[in-house]
Amino acid sequence: MEFYPNPGKKLEVIVNGNEWLRYPIKTHFIKIGESLEKITEDYVLPFVKDSDIVVLCQKIVSLSQQRVIHKKDLKVGFWAKFLSRFAIKTPYGFSVGNPLKMQVAINLAGLPRILFACALSAFFKIFRISGIFYKVAGHQISQLDGFYGEAFPEYSDIGILGSKNNNILCDNLRKKYNLSFLVADVNDLGGHILGVSRDLRGKEELFLEILKDNPAGQYNQQTPIIILRKNV
User: Fold this and answer.
1) What is the pLDDT of residue 88?
2) Cβ 23 vs Cβ 11: under 8 Å
3) Does domain 12-67+162-231 have CATH number 3.60.110.10?
4) What's the N-to-C CA distance of the chain in angstroms?
5) Which region, left, alpha or beta, applies to residue 35 given φ > 0 means left and ψ of -120 to 50 means alpha?
6) What pLDDT band is residue 191 in, cutting at 50, 70 and 90?
7) pLDDT digit string (tens) for 30-78?
8) Separation CA 190–CA 33 (nearest Å)
9) Residue 109: which of 141, 78, 77 has the closest Cα?
10) What is the CB-side half-sphere exposure of residue 205 using CA atoms within 13 A?
11) Distance in angstroms (rounded) separating the CA atoms of residues 48 and 228
12) From the centroid of its chain, how far is CA 21?
């Protein structure tokens, strides 16, 4: 099978003098509660080699774990509406600038902590230091997705929380398929490696460098799995 990069991306990247190939795997639209094992068997096993590394984008892991909040179950209060006005809008969505997401943040971390995070964020913006809000707020709020239907209308009515037990998940998948796995939350503004199978521990910074330009794409490419292959 021939693989093609997503628009504006490349299949190859050189990191630390080694060339890595990043093959985007197109899937069907992954829905809440779908089995990662079934997805792996349908889309990964037909093409993967023993030495490959399978990257699962965090969103499909969260969906498989049913880590979602439905808009109809969320009551947006005064503070969420007020504080969301001061959040910076990125080219890829409103983040906690969306009152729905700010309300989820308040529900997860508590209003006092969110107020403190907002105050510190405002202070550090004077020094052009960003990201303070998410560091102080914690509770995986930086990984909150959804409530935004421009790319996929299905996501307009659900918020997608951060995935859980990522290292354990990757270890279980490795044990079952004898492949290396990692879970990544990467977008065009940055990213994190959230979990890796035991054989990849200590190499998280390497894989973040390999994936930092987000080869899975940002919009509606529907390629939530990347196969990494070291070109030797």
Assistant:
1) 76
2) yes
3) no
4) 19
5) beta
6) confident
7) 999 999 999 999 999 999 999 999 999 999 999 999 999 999 999 999 9
8) 27
9) 141
10) 2
11) 9
12) 20
User: Domain residue spans in the chain?
Assistant: 12-67+162-231, 68-160
Q: How far apart are CA 195 and CA 53, in angstroms?
A: 13
Determine how β-strand 158-160 pairs with β-strand 190-196.
unpaired
The whole-number pLDDT of residue 36 equals 97
Alpha carbons 208 and 99: distance in angstroms, whole number: 30
